User: Fold this.
Amino acid sequence: MPIYKAPTRDTRFVLNEVLRLEQYGNLPGFENTGADMVDTVVEECGKFAAEVLAPINLSGDQEGCTRHPDGSVTTPAGFKEAFQLYREAGWGTLAAPQEFGGQGMPHVLGFVVEEFVATANQAWGMYPGLTAGAISAILAKGSPEQQAKYLPRMIAGEWTGTMNLTEPHCGTDLGLIRTRAVPNADGSYAITGTKIFISAGEHDMSENIIHLVLAKTPGAPESSKGISLFIVPKVLVNDDGSLGERNAVSCGSIEHKMGIHGNATCVMNYDGATGWMVGEENKGLAAMFIMMNAARLGVGIQGLAQAEAAYQNAVQYAQDRRQGRALTGPAEPQEKADPLFVHPDVRRMLMDAKAFTEGMRAFYLWGGLLVDLSHKAASEEERQTADDMISLLTPVLKGYGTDKGFDTCVQMQQVFGGHGYIEEWGMSQFVRDARIAQIYEGTNGIQAMDLVGRKLAQNGGRAVQAFFAEVDAACAAAKAQPEQEQLAVQVERANGELKAATMWFMQNGMTQPNNVGAGAHHYMHIMGIVALGLMWLKMGAVAVEAIAGGSADKAFYEAKLVTARYFGQRFTPDAGALRRKLEAGSEAMMELPVEAFLRA
Assistant:
Protein backbone atom coordinates (compact mmCIF):
# COMPACT_ATOMS: atom_id res chain seq x y z
CA MET A 1 0.00 0.00 0.00
CA PRO A 2 1.58 3.33 -1.03
CA ILE A 3 2.27 5.86 1.72
CA TYR A 4 1.65 9.61 1.82
CA LYS A 5 2.51 12.20 4.43
CA ALA A 6 1.76 15.82 3.56
CA PRO A 7 4.98 17.87 3.45
CA THR A 8 3.69 20.32 6.01
CA ARG A 9 7.08 21.39 7.41
CA ASP A 10 8.39 22.25 3.97
CA THR A 11 5.19 24.09 3.05
CA ARG A 12 5.21 26.14 6.25
CA PHE A 13 8.85 27.01 5.61
CA VAL A 14 8.02 28.49 2.20
CA LEU A 15 4.89 30.34 3.32
CA ASN A 16 6.14 31.73 6.61
CA GLU A 17 9.86 32.14 6.10
CA VAL A 18 10.52 32.51 2.36
CA LEU A 19 7.38 34.33 1.18
CA ARG A 20 6.70 35.79 4.65
CA LEU A 21 2.95 36.05 4.20
CA GLU A 22 2.65 38.06 7.42
CA GLN A 23 4.10 41.10 5.64
CA TYR A 24 0.95 41.32 3.51
CA GLY A 25 -1.41 41.53 6.47
CA ASN A 26 -2.64 44.97 5.35
CA LEU A 27 -4.06 43.57 2.11
CA PRO A 28 -7.61 42.21 1.69
CA GLY A 29 -7.76 38.51 2.48
CA PHE A 30 -4.36 38.47 4.19
CA GLU A 31 -5.63 39.74 7.55
CA ASN A 32 -5.49 36.24 9.04
CA THR A 33 -2.33 34.91 7.42
CA GLY A 34 -0.11 35.02 10.48
CA ALA A 35 2.10 32.02 11.12
CA ASP A 36 -0.38 30.42 13.53
CA MET A 37 -3.26 30.52 11.04
CA VAL A 38 -1.06 29.35 8.17
CA ASP A 39 0.23 26.47 10.27
CA THR A 40 -3.30 25.44 11.21
CA VAL A 41 -4.52 25.43 7.60
CA VAL A 42 -1.47 23.52 6.38
CA GLU A 43 -1.51 20.92 9.13
CA GLU A 44 -5.26 20.27 9.07
CA CYS A 45 -5.42 20.02 5.30
CA GLY A 46 -2.41 17.73 5.34
CA LYS A 47 -4.17 15.51 7.82
CA PHE A 48 -7.36 15.40 5.72
CA ALA A 49 -5.43 14.50 2.57
CA ALA A 50 -3.36 11.79 4.23
CA GLU A 51 -6.14 10.22 6.29
CA VAL A 52 -9.18 10.55 4.00
CA LEU A 53 -8.00 10.79 0.39
CA ALA A 54 -4.77 8.81 0.20
CA PRO A 55 -6.31 5.53 1.45
CA ILE A 56 -8.81 5.47 -1.46
CA ASN A 57 -6.31 6.41 -4.17
CA LEU A 58 -5.08 2.93 -5.14
CA SER A 59 -8.53 1.34 -4.76
CA GLY A 60 -10.06 4.15 -6.83
CA ASP A 61 -7.54 3.47 -9.58
CA GLN A 62 -8.36 -0.23 -9.54
CA GLU A 63 -12.15 0.19 -9.45
CA GLY A 64 -12.57 3.21 -11.70
CA CYS A 65 -15.88 4.87 -12.56
CA THR A 66 -18.95 3.01 -13.82
CA ARG A 67 -21.44 4.28 -16.38
CA HIS A 68 -24.92 2.78 -16.12
CA PRO A 69 -27.44 2.20 -18.93
CA ASP A 70 -29.35 5.35 -18.01
CA GLY A 71 -26.20 7.46 -18.51
CA SER A 72 -25.56 7.99 -14.80
CA VAL A 73 -22.07 7.44 -13.41
CA THR A 74 -20.93 6.19 -10.02
CA THR A 75 -17.48 6.98 -8.67
CA PRO A 76 -15.25 4.46 -6.85
CA ALA A 77 -16.03 3.35 -3.31
CA GLY A 78 -15.33 6.07 -0.77
CA PHE A 79 -15.17 8.97 -3.24
CA LYS A 80 -18.64 10.31 -2.53
CA GLU A 81 -18.16 10.05 1.25
CA ALA A 82 -14.78 11.79 1.01
CA PHE A 83 -16.37 14.63 -0.93
CA GLN A 84 -18.96 15.08 1.80
CA LEU A 85 -16.18 15.36 4.39
CA TYR A 86 -14.37 17.86 2.15
CA ARG A 87 -17.49 19.98 1.94
CA GLU A 88 -18.15 19.85 5.66
CA ALA A 89 -14.60 20.92 6.41
CA GLY A 90 -14.97 23.88 4.04
CA TRP A 91 -11.79 23.23 2.08
CA GLY A 92 -13.40 24.31 -1.19
CA THR A 93 -14.48 27.63 0.31
CA LEU A 94 -11.03 28.65 1.55
CA ALA A 95 -10.02 31.11 -1.19
CA ALA A 96 -13.51 31.84 -2.57
CA PRO A 97 -15.10 35.32 -2.22
CA GLN A 98 -16.93 35.94 1.03
CA GLU A 99 -19.90 37.53 -0.74
CA PHE A 100 -20.78 34.11 -2.18
CA GLY A 101 -20.07 32.06 0.93
CA GLY A 102 -16.32 31.68 0.72
CA GLN A 103 -13.73 32.41 3.38
CA GLY A 104 -11.92 35.00 1.27
CA MET A 105 -8.43 33.81 2.12
CA PRO A 106 -5.48 34.17 -0.29
CA HIS A 107 -5.12 31.98 -3.37
CA VAL A 108 -1.70 30.93 -2.17
CA LEU A 109 -3.33 28.99 0.67
CA GLY A 110 -5.85 27.54 -1.75
CA PHE A 111 -2.89 26.27 -3.77
CA VAL A 112 -1.65 24.39 -0.70
CA VAL A 113 -4.98 22.57 -0.55
CA GLU A 114 -4.69 21.76 -4.26
CA GLU A 115 -1.24 20.25 -3.80
CA PHE A 116 -2.09 18.09 -0.81
CA VAL A 117 -5.33 16.87 -2.39
CA ALA A 118 -3.70 16.12 -5.76
CA THR A 119 -0.80 14.27 -4.14
CA ALA A 120 -3.08 12.14 -2.02
CA ASN A 121 -5.56 11.40 -4.82
CA GLN A 122 -5.27 13.24 -8.14
CA ALA A 123 -8.35 11.66 -9.74
CA TRP A 124 -10.53 12.66 -6.79
CA GLY A 125 -9.05 16.14 -6.62
CA MET A 126 -10.12 16.90 -10.17
CA TYR A 127 -13.79 17.11 -9.15
CA PRO A 128 -13.38 20.14 -6.86
CA GLY A 129 -10.46 21.41 -8.97
CA LEU A 130 -12.55 21.82 -12.11
CA THR A 131 -15.31 23.39 -10.05
CA ALA A 132 -12.88 26.05 -8.87
CA GLY A 133 -12.00 26.85 -12.47
CA ALA A 134 -15.66 27.18 -13.43
CA ILE A 135 -16.20 29.47 -10.46
CA SER A 136 -13.34 31.68 -11.69
CA ALA A 137 -14.93 32.07 -15.12
CA ILE A 138 -18.39 32.91 -13.74
CA LEU A 139 -16.85 35.38 -11.29
CA ALA A 140 -15.03 37.14 -14.11
CA LYS A 141 -17.63 37.11 -16.88
CA GLY A 142 -20.97 36.01 -15.45
CA SER A 143 -23.82 38.47 -14.92
CA PRO A 144 -24.77 39.40 -11.34
CA GLU A 145 -27.84 37.18 -11.72
CA GLN A 146 -25.75 34.21 -12.88
CA GLN A 147 -23.29 34.72 -10.06
CA ALA A 148 -26.04 34.84 -7.46
CA LYS A 149 -27.75 31.79 -8.93
CA TYR A 150 -24.78 29.45 -9.26
CA LEU A 151 -21.78 30.55 -7.22
CA PRO A 152 -23.00 30.03 -3.64
CA ARG A 153 -23.96 26.41 -4.30
CA MET A 154 -20.77 25.72 -6.28
CA ILE A 155 -18.53 27.28 -3.66
CA ALA A 156 -20.30 25.30 -0.96
CA GLY A 157 -19.65 22.10 -2.92
CA GLU A 158 -23.32 21.28 -3.34
CA TRP A 159 -22.84 21.65 -7.09
CA THR A 160 -19.71 20.96 -9.13
CA GLY A 161 -18.52 22.37 -12.46
CA THR A 162 -16.81 21.38 -15.70
CA MET A 163 -15.28 22.95 -18.80
CA ASN A 164 -16.38 21.69 -22.23
CA LEU A 165 -14.04 22.59 -25.08
CA THR A 166 -12.81 19.58 -27.05
CA GLU A 167 -14.82 17.86 -29.77
CA PRO A 168 -14.08 14.62 -31.64
CA HIS A 169 -12.60 16.46 -34.64
CA CYS A 170 -10.83 19.33 -32.87
CA GLY A 171 -8.74 19.92 -29.78
CA THR A 172 -6.53 23.00 -29.62
CA ASP A 173 -7.94 24.56 -32.79
CA LEU A 174 -11.21 25.59 -31.20
CA GLY A 175 -12.25 27.61 -34.22
CA LEU A 176 -13.31 24.26 -35.71
CA ILE A 177 -15.96 23.47 -33.08
CA ARG A 178 -19.38 22.43 -34.37
CA THR A 179 -21.51 22.68 -31.22
CA ARG A 180 -24.33 25.10 -31.93
CA ALA A 181 -26.30 27.47 -29.73
CA VAL A 182 -29.65 28.54 -31.17
CA PRO A 183 -31.50 31.41 -29.42
CA ASN A 184 -34.76 30.63 -27.66
CA ALA A 185 -37.58 33.15 -27.23
CA ASP A 186 -36.91 33.51 -23.49
CA GLY A 187 -33.26 34.59 -23.90
CA SER A 188 -31.81 31.14 -23.33
CA TYR A 189 -30.15 29.01 -26.01
CA ALA A 190 -30.61 25.46 -27.27
CA ILE A 191 -27.18 23.81 -27.17
CA THR A 192 -26.55 20.88 -29.52
CA GLY A 193 -23.28 19.02 -30.05
CA THR A 194 -20.83 16.49 -28.65
CA LYS A 195 -17.87 17.20 -26.38
CA ILE A 196 -15.16 14.69 -25.48
CA PHE A 197 -12.54 14.31 -22.74
CA ILE A 198 -14.80 16.09 -20.23
CA SER A 199 -13.31 15.40 -16.81
CA ALA A 200 -15.94 15.05 -14.04
CA GLY A 201 -18.63 15.34 -16.73
CA GLU A 202 -21.04 13.02 -14.90
CA HIS A 203 -20.82 11.57 -11.40
CA ASP A 204 -22.68 10.93 -8.15
CA MET A 205 -20.77 13.28 -5.83
CA SER A 206 -22.98 16.38 -6.16
CA GLU A 207 -26.64 17.00 -6.85
CA ASN A 208 -25.98 19.21 -9.88
CA ILE A 209 -23.16 19.78 -12.37
CA ILE A 210 -22.74 23.20 -13.98
CA HIS A 211 -21.18 22.74 -17.40
CA LEU A 212 -19.43 25.65 -19.10
CA VAL A 213 -19.72 24.94 -22.82
CA LEU A 214 -18.16 26.57 -25.86
CA ALA A 215 -20.52 26.82 -28.85
CA LYS A 216 -21.27 28.97 -31.87
CA THR A 217 -24.41 31.00 -32.45
CA PRO A 218 -26.07 31.17 -35.92
CA GLY A 219 -24.06 33.32 -38.29
CA ALA A 220 -21.01 33.47 -36.04
CA PRO A 221 -17.61 33.68 -37.77
CA GLU A 222 -16.20 30.26 -38.62
CA SER A 223 -13.09 30.82 -36.49
CA SER A 224 -12.12 31.26 -32.86
CA LYS A 225 -13.63 34.76 -33.12
CA GLY A 226 -17.07 33.20 -33.38
CA ILE A 227 -17.08 31.25 -30.12
CA SER A 228 -19.43 31.99 -27.22
CA LEU A 229 -19.54 30.53 -23.71
CA PHE A 230 -22.66 29.07 -22.08
CA ILE A 231 -23.75 27.85 -18.68
CA VAL A 232 -25.55 24.53 -19.19
CA PRO A 233 -26.66 22.90 -15.92
CA LYS A 234 -27.16 19.15 -15.69
CA VAL A 235 -30.39 19.92 -13.81
CA LEU A 236 -32.19 23.19 -14.55
CA VAL A 237 -32.30 25.68 -11.68
CA ASN A 238 -35.55 27.43 -10.85
CA ASP A 239 -35.69 31.15 -10.11
CA ASP A 240 -35.90 30.44 -6.37
CA GLY A 241 -32.71 28.36 -6.51
CA SER A 242 -34.42 24.98 -6.27
CA LEU A 243 -33.70 22.23 -8.78
CA GLY A 244 -36.15 21.69 -11.62
CA GLU A 245 -36.19 19.36 -14.60
CA ARG A 246 -33.27 17.34 -15.92
CA ASN A 247 -31.62 19.17 -18.83
CA ALA A 248 -31.03 17.53 -22.22
CA VAL A 249 -27.37 16.77 -21.52
CA SER A 250 -26.05 13.25 -20.92
CA CYS A 251 -22.92 11.15 -20.64
CA GLY A 252 -22.66 8.97 -23.76
CA SER A 253 -19.65 7.01 -22.52
CA ILE A 254 -16.61 7.11 -20.25
CA GLU A 255 -13.19 7.29 -21.88
CA HIS A 256 -10.88 4.34 -21.20
CA LYS A 257 -7.73 6.11 -20.06
CA MET A 258 -4.13 5.37 -19.17
CA GLY A 259 -4.56 6.85 -15.68
CA ILE A 260 -6.78 8.96 -13.38
CA HIS A 261 -9.27 6.11 -13.47
CA GLY A 262 -11.17 7.49 -10.48
CA ASN A 263 -12.22 10.52 -12.47
CA ALA A 264 -15.10 10.21 -14.90
CA THR A 265 -13.76 11.52 -18.21
CA CYS A 266 -16.89 11.62 -20.33
CA VAL A 267 -18.23 12.00 -23.82
CA MET A 268 -21.00 14.56 -23.28
CA ASN A 269 -24.00 14.81 -25.59
CA TYR A 270 -25.98 18.05 -25.75
CA ASP A 271 -29.33 17.47 -27.45
CA GLY A 272 -30.96 20.89 -27.50
CA ALA A 273 -29.95 21.44 -23.87
CA THR A 274 -30.94 24.75 -22.35
CA GLY A 275 -28.03 27.11 -21.71
CA TRP A 276 -27.38 30.76 -20.96
CA MET A 277 -24.65 32.88 -22.49
CA VAL A 278 -21.82 34.02 -20.24
CA GLY A 279 -20.42 37.41 -21.17
CA GLU A 280 -20.59 38.76 -24.72
CA GLU A 281 -21.47 36.88 -27.87
CA ASN A 282 -18.42 35.68 -29.81
CA LYS A 283 -16.19 36.51 -26.83
CA GLY A 284 -16.43 33.10 -25.21
CA LEU A 285 -12.84 32.05 -25.76
CA ALA A 286 -11.55 34.93 -23.66
CA ALA A 287 -13.96 33.94 -20.90
CA MET A 288 -12.92 30.29 -21.10
CA PHE A 289 -9.24 31.25 -20.95
CA ILE A 290 -9.85 32.64 -17.48
CA MET A 291 -10.89 29.17 -16.43
CA MET A 292 -8.07 27.56 -18.41
CA ASN A 293 -5.38 29.74 -16.88
CA ALA A 294 -6.58 28.84 -13.41
CA ALA A 295 -6.62 25.19 -14.47
CA ARG A 296 -3.10 25.42 -15.92
CA LEU A 297 -1.73 26.54 -12.59
CA GLY A 298 -3.57 23.65 -10.96
CA VAL A 299 -2.13 21.21 -13.49
CA GLY A 300 1.38 22.47 -12.76
CA ILE A 301 0.69 21.64 -9.13
CA GLN A 302 -0.43 18.16 -10.22
CA GLY A 303 2.97 17.63 -11.83
CA LEU A 304 4.63 18.33 -8.50
CA ALA A 305 1.99 16.32 -6.64
CA GLN A 306 2.61 13.02 -8.39
CA ALA A 307 6.37 13.54 -8.17
CA GLU A 308 6.03 14.13 -4.43
CA ALA A 309 3.95 11.00 -3.92
CA ALA A 310 6.38 8.88 -5.94
CA TYR A 311 9.36 10.42 -4.13
CA GLN A 312 8.01 9.64 -0.67
CA ASN A 313 7.44 6.02 -1.58
CA ALA A 314 10.85 5.68 -3.23
CA VAL A 315 12.57 7.08 -0.13
CA GLN A 316 10.75 4.55 2.03
CA TYR A 317 11.68 1.70 -0.31
CA ALA A 318 15.33 2.77 -0.50
CA GLN A 319 15.49 2.65 3.29
CA ASP A 320 13.94 -0.80 3.55
CA ARG A 321 15.31 -2.64 0.52
CA ARG A 322 18.77 -4.23 0.79
CA GLN A 323 20.79 -4.87 -2.35
CA GLY A 324 24.56 -5.19 -2.73
CA ARG A 325 27.26 -3.33 -0.85
CA ALA A 326 28.41 0.29 -0.77
CA LEU A 327 31.26 1.02 -3.20
CA THR A 328 33.40 2.19 -0.29
CA GLY A 329 32.87 -1.02 1.68
CA PRO A 330 29.99 -2.52 3.68
CA ALA A 331 27.93 0.20 5.36
CA GLU A 332 26.24 -2.31 7.67
CA PRO A 333 28.61 -5.31 7.96
CA GLN A 334 26.29 -7.07 10.37
CA GLU A 335 23.69 -7.38 7.58
CA LYS A 336 23.91 -9.49 4.43
CA ALA A 337 23.46 -6.42 2.22
CA ASP A 338 23.28 -2.64 2.53
CA PRO A 339 20.17 -0.48 1.96
CA LEU A 340 19.69 1.02 -1.47
CA PHE A 341 20.51 4.42 -0.02
CA VAL A 342 24.26 3.67 -0.09
CA HIS A 343 24.38 3.50 -3.91
CA PRO A 344 25.27 6.77 -5.69
CA ASP A 345 22.96 6.08 -8.63
CA VAL A 346 19.99 5.63 -6.30
CA ARG A 347 21.05 8.80 -4.50
CA ARG A 348 21.19 10.58 -7.87
CA MET A 349 17.56 9.77 -8.56
CA LEU A 350 16.40 10.65 -5.06
CA MET A 351 18.38 13.90 -4.96
CA ASP A 352 17.00 14.88 -8.38
CA ALA A 353 13.51 14.32 -6.99
CA LYS A 354 14.20 16.19 -3.75
CA ALA A 355 15.70 19.18 -5.59
CA PHE A 356 12.80 19.32 -8.05
CA THR A 357 9.89 18.81 -5.63
CA GLU A 358 11.11 21.31 -3.04
CA GLY A 359 12.07 23.86 -5.67
CA MET A 360 8.79 23.40 -7.53
CA ARG A 361 6.79 23.77 -4.33
CA ALA A 362 8.38 27.14 -3.69
CA PHE A 363 7.78 28.09 -7.35
CA TYR A 364 4.05 27.37 -7.37
CA LEU A 365 3.52 29.00 -3.97
CA TRP A 366 5.29 32.11 -5.21
CA GLY A 367 3.00 31.90 -8.24
CA GLY A 368 -0.02 31.73 -5.94
CA LEU A 369 1.17 34.84 -4.12
CA LEU A 370 1.60 36.62 -7.45
CA VAL A 371 -2.02 35.77 -8.32
CA ASP A 372 -3.10 37.37 -5.04
CA LEU A 373 -0.93 40.45 -5.51
CA SER A 374 -2.17 40.91 -9.08
CA HIS A 375 -5.62 41.57 -7.58
CA LYS A 376 -4.91 42.90 -4.10
CA ALA A 377 -1.57 44.73 -3.99
CA ALA A 378 -1.76 48.27 -2.64
CA SER A 379 -0.83 50.12 -5.83
CA GLU A 380 -1.71 49.73 -9.48
CA GLU A 381 1.98 49.44 -10.32
CA GLU A 382 2.42 46.52 -7.91
CA ARG A 383 -0.68 44.82 -9.26
CA GLN A 384 0.55 45.22 -12.83
CA THR A 385 4.01 43.88 -11.97
CA ALA A 386 2.54 40.81 -10.30
CA ASP A 387 0.13 40.23 -13.19
CA ASP A 388 2.95 40.51 -15.71
CA MET A 389 5.05 37.99 -13.82
CA ILE A 390 2.37 35.32 -13.27
CA SER A 391 1.17 35.66 -16.88
CA LEU A 392 4.72 35.05 -18.08
CA LEU A 393 5.34 32.13 -15.73
CA THR A 394 2.00 30.28 -16.02
CA PRO A 395 3.11 28.22 -19.07
CA VAL A 396 6.40 27.45 -17.29
CA LEU A 397 4.64 26.34 -14.13
CA LYS A 398 2.40 24.09 -16.19
CA GLY A 399 4.82 22.89 -18.86
CA TYR A 400 8.12 22.55 -17.02
CA GLY A 401 6.37 21.43 -13.83
CA THR A 402 4.55 18.56 -15.51
CA ASP A 403 7.43 17.49 -17.75
CA LYS A 404 9.76 17.24 -14.78
CA GLY A 405 7.01 15.83 -12.59
CA PHE A 406 6.48 12.92 -14.98
CA ASP A 407 10.23 12.35 -15.35
CA THR A 408 10.53 12.27 -11.57
CA CYS A 409 7.76 9.67 -11.26
CA VAL A 410 9.55 7.44 -13.78
CA GLN A 411 12.83 7.77 -11.89
CA MET A 412 11.17 6.99 -8.57
CA GLN A 413 9.62 3.90 -10.17
CA GLN A 414 13.15 2.97 -11.23
CA VAL A 415 14.31 3.01 -7.59
CA PHE A 416 11.97 0.07 -7.00
CA GLY A 417 13.52 -2.02 -9.77
CA GLY A 418 11.16 -4.80 -10.81
CA HIS A 419 8.77 -4.07 -7.96
CA GLY A 420 8.12 -0.65 -9.50
CA TYR A 421 6.52 -2.36 -12.47
CA ILE A 422 4.11 -4.35 -10.30
CA GLU A 423 0.75 -2.66 -9.70
CA GLU A 424 0.42 -3.54 -6.02
CA TRP A 425 3.31 -1.21 -5.09
CA GLY A 426 1.45 1.79 -6.55
CA MET A 427 4.36 3.30 -8.48
CA SER A 428 2.74 2.48 -11.81
CA GLN A 429 -0.27 4.57 -10.84
CA PHE A 430 1.86 7.63 -10.09
CA VAL A 431 3.49 7.33 -13.52
CA ARG A 432 0.16 6.79 -15.29
CA ASP A 433 -1.62 9.58 -13.44
CA ALA A 434 1.24 12.03 -13.98
CA ARG A 435 1.24 11.49 -17.74
CA ILE A 436 -2.04 13.30 -18.38
CA ALA A 437 -0.77 16.53 -16.84
CA GLN A 438 1.57 17.04 -19.80
CA ILE A 439 -1.41 16.80 -22.15
CA TYR A 440 -4.53 18.47 -20.82
CA GLU A 441 -5.25 22.19 -20.44
CA GLY A 442 -3.06 22.72 -23.49
CA THR A 443 -0.26 20.29 -24.27
CA ASN A 444 3.18 21.32 -23.12
CA GLY A 445 4.18 22.16 -26.67
CA ILE A 446 1.33 24.67 -26.71
CA GLN A 447 2.45 26.02 -23.35
CA ALA A 448 5.93 26.56 -24.80
CA MET A 449 4.52 28.34 -27.86
CA ASP A 450 2.32 30.50 -25.64
CA LEU A 451 5.44 31.47 -23.70
CA VAL A 452 7.67 32.37 -26.65
CA GLY A 453 5.00 33.31 -29.18
CA ARG A 454 2.90 35.58 -26.98
CA LYS A 455 4.25 36.20 -23.50
CA LEU A 456 7.82 37.25 -24.35
CA ALA A 457 6.82 40.08 -26.65
CA GLN A 458 3.87 41.42 -24.65
CA ASN A 459 4.25 45.05 -23.62
CA GLY A 460 7.63 45.26 -25.29
CA GLY A 461 9.05 42.38 -23.24
CA ARG A 462 8.26 44.07 -19.92
CA ALA A 463 7.55 40.83 -18.06
CA VAL A 464 10.62 38.88 -19.12
CA GLN A 465 12.85 41.85 -18.39
CA ALA A 466 11.36 42.02 -14.91
CA PHE A 467 12.05 38.31 -14.47
CA PHE A 468 15.67 38.74 -15.56
CA ALA A 469 16.03 41.59 -13.07
CA GLU A 470 14.50 39.56 -10.25
CA VAL A 471 16.97 36.73 -10.82
CA ASP A 472 19.94 39.10 -11.17
CA ALA A 473 19.05 40.78 -7.88
CA ALA A 474 18.76 37.46 -6.08
CA CYS A 475 22.13 36.34 -7.47
CA ALA A 476 23.80 39.58 -6.40
CA ALA A 477 22.40 39.27 -2.88
CA ALA A 478 23.40 35.61 -2.59
CA LYS A 479 27.01 36.33 -3.50
CA ALA A 480 27.33 38.12 -0.18
CA GLN A 481 26.79 34.79 1.60
CA PRO A 482 29.73 32.38 1.25
CA GLU A 483 27.36 29.40 1.52
CA GLN A 484 25.38 30.70 -1.48
CA GLU A 485 28.11 32.14 -3.67
CA GLN A 486 28.62 29.09 -5.87
CA LEU A 487 24.90 28.63 -6.46
CA ALA A 488 24.56 32.33 -7.25
CA VAL A 489 27.21 32.06 -9.96
CA GLN A 490 25.54 28.94 -11.41
CA VAL A 491 22.05 30.48 -11.50
CA GLU A 492 23.48 33.70 -12.90
CA ARG A 493 25.11 31.70 -15.69
CA ALA A 494 21.80 29.90 -16.41
CA ASN A 495 20.02 33.26 -16.48
CA GLY A 496 22.62 34.40 -18.99
CA GLU A 497 21.74 31.42 -21.17
CA LEU A 498 18.07 32.42 -20.93
CA LYS A 499 18.87 36.00 -21.93
CA ALA A 500 20.95 34.78 -24.87
CA ALA A 501 18.16 32.44 -26.00
CA THR A 502 15.68 35.32 -25.80
CA MET A 503 17.93 37.48 -27.95
CA TRP A 504 18.39 34.66 -30.46
CA PHE A 505 14.63 34.40 -30.87
CA MET A 506 14.41 38.14 -31.45
CA GLN A 507 17.08 37.93 -34.16
CA ASN A 508 16.01 34.67 -35.81
CA GLY A 509 12.32 34.23 -35.12
CA MET A 510 10.64 37.10 -36.94
CA THR A 511 11.81 36.10 -40.42
CA GLN A 512 11.77 32.35 -39.75
CA PRO A 513 8.82 31.52 -37.45
CA ASN A 514 9.71 27.81 -37.46
CA ASN A 515 12.83 28.69 -35.47
CA VAL A 516 10.55 29.82 -32.66
CA GLY A 517 8.47 26.66 -32.83
CA ALA A 518 11.55 24.45 -32.98
CA GLY A 519 13.13 26.01 -29.91
CA ALA A 520 10.09 26.84 -27.77
CA HIS A 521 10.15 23.69 -25.66
CA HIS A 522 13.86 24.08 -24.92
CA TYR A 523 13.30 27.72 -23.97
CA MET A 524 10.50 26.80 -21.56
CA HIS A 525 12.81 24.35 -19.83
CA ILE A 526 15.62 26.89 -19.55
CA MET A 527 13.20 29.29 -17.89
CA GLY A 528 12.02 26.50 -15.60
CA ILE A 529 15.59 25.81 -14.51
CA VAL A 530 16.21 29.50 -13.85
CA ALA A 531 12.91 29.88 -11.98
CA LEU A 532 13.72 26.95 -9.68
CA GLY A 533 17.22 28.36 -9.29
CA LEU A 534 15.66 31.61 -8.12
CA MET A 535 13.61 29.68 -5.59
CA TRP A 536 16.68 27.84 -4.29
CA LEU A 537 18.50 31.15 -3.87
CA LYS A 538 15.58 32.49 -1.84
CA MET A 539 15.32 29.33 0.27
CA GLY A 540 19.06 29.16 0.74
CA ALA A 541 19.22 32.74 1.99
CA VAL A 542 16.64 31.95 4.67
CA ALA A 543 18.47 28.76 5.64
CA VAL A 544 21.79 30.59 6.07
CA GLU A 545 20.18 33.15 8.35
CA ALA A 546 18.33 30.49 10.36
CA ILE A 547 21.53 28.52 11.01
CA ALA A 548 23.43 31.68 11.93
CA GLY A 549 20.63 32.57 14.33
CA GLY A 550 20.99 29.29 16.19
CA SER A 551 17.78 27.63 14.99
CA ALA A 552 16.80 24.51 16.90
CA ASP A 553 15.86 22.95 13.55
CA LYS A 554 19.41 23.19 12.20
CA ALA A 555 19.27 19.85 10.36
CA PHE A 556 16.31 21.03 8.26
CA TYR A 557 18.14 24.17 7.11
CA GLU A 558 21.40 22.36 6.47
CA ALA A 559 19.53 19.92 4.24
CA LYS A 560 18.16 22.90 2.32
CA LEU A 561 21.66 24.20 1.65
CA VAL A 562 22.95 20.81 0.51
CA THR A 563 19.97 20.37 -1.81
CA ALA A 564 20.46 23.90 -3.16
CA ARG A 565 24.09 23.06 -3.86
CA TYR A 566 23.03 19.89 -5.64
CA PHE A 567 20.53 21.83 -7.78
CA GLY A 568 23.25 24.21 -8.86
CA GLN A 569 25.61 21.38 -9.76
CA ARG A 570 23.17 19.06 -11.51
CA PHE A 571 20.32 21.18 -12.91
CA THR A 572 21.76 24.54 -13.98
CA PRO A 573 24.31 23.12 -16.49
CA ASP A 574 21.40 21.87 -18.61
CA ALA A 575 20.52 25.47 -19.47
CA GLY A 576 23.57 25.77 -21.71
CA ALA A 577 22.90 22.53 -23.55
CA LEU A 578 19.27 23.52 -24.09
CA ARG A 579 20.32 26.90 -25.49
CA ARG A 580 22.64 25.19 -27.98
CA LYS A 581 19.79 22.93 -29.08
CA LEU A 582 17.53 25.95 -29.47
CA GLU A 583 20.11 27.80 -31.57
CA ALA A 584 20.34 24.84 -33.98
CA GLY A 585 17.19 26.30 -35.51
CA SER A 586 14.55 24.50 -37.53
CA GLU A 587 16.23 23.70 -40.84
CA ALA A 588 17.07 20.01 -40.27
CA MET A 589 13.85 19.55 -38.29
CA MET A 590 11.57 20.76 -41.07
CA GLU A 591 13.54 19.76 -44.19
CA LEU A 592 12.40 16.20 -44.87
CA PRO A 593 9.19 15.50 -46.78
CA VAL A 594 6.56 13.43 -45.02
CA GLU A 595 7.41 10.42 -47.16
CA ALA A 596 10.89 10.27 -45.65
CA PHE A 597 9.41 9.44 -42.25
CA LEU A 598 7.60 6.36 -43.55
CA ARG A 599 9.24 2.95 -43.33
CA ALA A 600 9.55 1.10 -46.63
